[in-house]
Structure formats: structure tokens, C-alpha cells
Amino acid sequence: MKRLGLFLLMAAFLAGGGLWYWQSSERDLVLDLASRDPDVVMAASRRLWEDSREGIDIGPTLIRGMQHPSPRVRSRSVLTLARMQVTSRADEAAALLADPDQGVRIQAARALRTLRGWSTPAPLLRSLEDRDETTQIRVEVAGALGQRGEPAAEAPLARIATDPSEPLGLRQEALGALGGLGAETKAPLMAQILLDPTQPIRLRQAAIAGLAKLSGPDARSALIVIAKSPEQAIPVRAHAAASLGCQGQVAEQALLRDLVAAPDQPLLVRLAAAQSLTHLDMAPANLVDLIRQGLQDPSARVRSEAACLAEAARNPDLEGELQSALDREEHRRVRRSLGSALNRLRQDAEMDPDSALAR
Questions:
Q1: What's the rounded Cα separation, in Å, for the pair 201 and 285?
Q2: CB 269 within 8 A of CB 237
Q3: Would you give the distance in Å from CA 166 to the centre of its chain?
Q4: Phi and psi of 127, rounded to 5°?
Q5: What are 156-165's pLDDT values in tens digits?
Q6: What are phi and psi of 332, to 5 degrees?
Q7: In terms of pLDDT, which residue wins out, 352 or 141?
Q8: Longest Cα pair distance anywhere in the chain, in angstroms?
Q9: pTM of the predicted model as reported, rounded to 2 decimal places
Q10: Does residue 223 contact residue 244 with C-beta atoms inside 8 Å?
Q11: How high does pLDDT run on average in the chain?
Q12: Residues with Cβ within 8 Å of residue 260, at least 6 apart in sequence
């Protein structure tokens, strides 16, 4: 009897321990996500991914982590929420924008760029307009609002874009976000920034990026004015010319062809205009000659743009020039562009046995 009693006691103890382990497995999984050991983190992530693939709702596990006392656990949990695309839990991620830990707020703001499924923009708008918040978080929130196309963000984004006391990086993000919103009524505001030569070039290029997403006459006319104006900075003109290919309106096509054909125009602008036409499946007749000229230019930026244009053109006749340019090139960015163009040509050759590169 004593042996039987001892056996039953041990069985009860082991059963209780097994039950405790089963109940705590989710807690352990959340803690594993915040481990300093990358193998442990990978194993936890893999298990969550497999659960998700099997139709198991992993949201409750990650929400538990987002409510954990440890900032690291909260941060890793909201990061995983975004990586696993658990869009149904975007409101819980948005709530972490008020977290006392800055690192957690940064991860929450980044996650919202991916999740986008919040039911109300109020937490994001509070962070966006909070001047005491870090610039990095406000930039991420502005980007999330623009990618979601949140109408309620139009007024605060416009205010930030035009306020010189705001950080430059935030103003740039606000301009791009206004384009993402499709805010045609704000096109004159963005055009005003673009046409003002006293504004920083980075800000004017951000205005171009925003205007390129709009199709209204105010946006398109501003881009045309900049692209053909010799008084404007060459990088700004080139950016505007490249952006004109986003919509492909008839008047813009004529301007682009004129820019490509004019030998007195800066080569960077001509390359950008050719890029737009190529994007519109209207590659100019002098495309190959233009690329060859760009590959020989003393400017690293021009050589890089020529390589990018060669990648878009996908012309096997350029393989020799690209390889020679790569062999002599020392600039890292240009080498990367040349390598990418060559890889594209060789991938095309593998898919086309009749290609000259495949022989």
C-alpha cells in the first residue's frame, strides 16, 4: 500500500508538472521571441509561423507579449505581429504608440506601416502631431498614414510639410504621404515647395515623389515646368523627368522625347527622360547610344543612372559595354548598378535559349 501510495503521489506530481508546462508554453514562446539567442528566436518564430499556416490564431499569444512588463518582450512581440501579417491586431499595435518605452513605440510605428488595419487613426494622429515625440516615430507614423491612404491625416500632413520649424526628414515623409493619400487638393501646396529654389533639394525631391503619385493637372504641370527649366538644379530636373513616366499623359510624352533628343540638355536629365519613356514602353531610338555615353561619363551618378537605364532596356547588345564598365569601375554604387544590369540580361538569356548571351 505504501508503494502504491508513493506511486500515485509521484504520478500526480508529474501530471501536475506536465499540466503546468502545457499551460505556460505560450508564455515561454513569447519570452523566446525576446531571447538574446538567435536560434531560440528563430525556433519561436518558426513555431508561430507553422501555427498560423495551420489556421491557429496566433494573435492572442502576441498580444500577451505586447502586454508583458518587459519592454524587450513587448517590442519583439509587436515586431513579430507585423512580420506575421496579423492585420486584425493593428489596433493593439497602435495602442503601443503610447507605451512609456521609446523602443517599443518605434517598433509599433514601424509595424503599423505593414499592418495598416487600424479601426481608428486617432492614436497615429496623436503621435504624428506630438512635437515632443521623437522624429523617427513621427516619420514612421506619417509613412503608415500615407500608405493606408488615411483621409483624416491630410490636414496634419499638409501642416507639417509646410512648417519650416518641423524636422526636414519629417517634412519629406509628409510630402510623400500626401501623394499616397491621393490628395489632389494639396497639389498646389506641394508644387509651391517644388518650385521654390530656396527650399532644400531633398525637400523638393520629396515634393516630386508626392506629385508623381497624383494625376491632376496641378501636379503634372509642376513636374513639367521643373523638368524643362534650365534654371533648376540638375538632380531636381532629372527626378521630375523620371517621375513623368508614372502617368504617361500625352503632353508629358512629347516633352520627354524632346528632352531625350536635345544634345544641349544635361545628360542626367536625358537619361531620366529616357527611363520614363522606357517605362511607358516607348523607348527612344537613341537609347543604346545614350546609355553608352552615360557609361563613359566622369560623374558616378550619371554612370549609375546609365546602368539603371540599361537594366530597364534589357538590350543584350549592351552586355559587352556593361561588362567592360564593371571591370574598370571603382565606385561601389555604380558597380552595384552595373552588376544588377548584367544579372538582368543573363537571367533573360537563361529564359530565352535563342538569345545571343545564351550561346
A1: 32
A2: yes
A3: 22
A4: -65, -40
A5: 999 999 999 9
A6: -60, -45
A7: 141
A8: 105
A9: 0.78
A10: yes
A11: 87
A12: 270, 273, 274, 277, 284, 286, 290
CA 335 – CA 48 distance, rounded (Å): 40
Helix, strand or coil for residue 312?
A: helix
Residue in 306, 303, 338 with CA at minimum distance from that of residue 319: 338
Matching residue, cell 501636379: 219
Provide the angle, in degrees to the nearest 10, between the axes of the packed helices 250-261 and 217-228.
Answer: 10
Q: What is the DSSP string of 19-64?
A: HHHHHHHHHHHHHHHT-S-HHHHHHHHHHHHHHHHTT---HHHHHH
- DSSP 8-state secondary structure symbol assigned to residue 134: -
CA distance 103 to 48: 23
Residues 6+ apart with CB under 8 A from 317: 288
Q: Are the CB atoms for 166 and 203 separated by under 8 Å?
A: no
At 352 the pLDDT is 58
Burial environment of residue 47 by CB neighbours within 10 A (0 to 12, 13 to 18, 19 or more): middle
- List, as one string, the DSSP characters of 327-358: HH---HHHHHHHHHHHHHHHHHHHH-TTSGGG
| Cα torsion 254, 257, 259, 264: sign | negative
Residue ranges in the chain assigned as alpha helix (H): 2-33, 38-53, 59-66, 71-83, 90-95, 102-115, 122-129, 135-148, 154-162, 168-180, 187-195, 201-212, 217-228, 234-243, 250-261, 267-279, 287-295, 300-313, 319-328, 332-351
Contacts with 240 (C-beta within 8 Å, 6 or more apart), sequence order: 194, 208, 223, 224, 226, 227
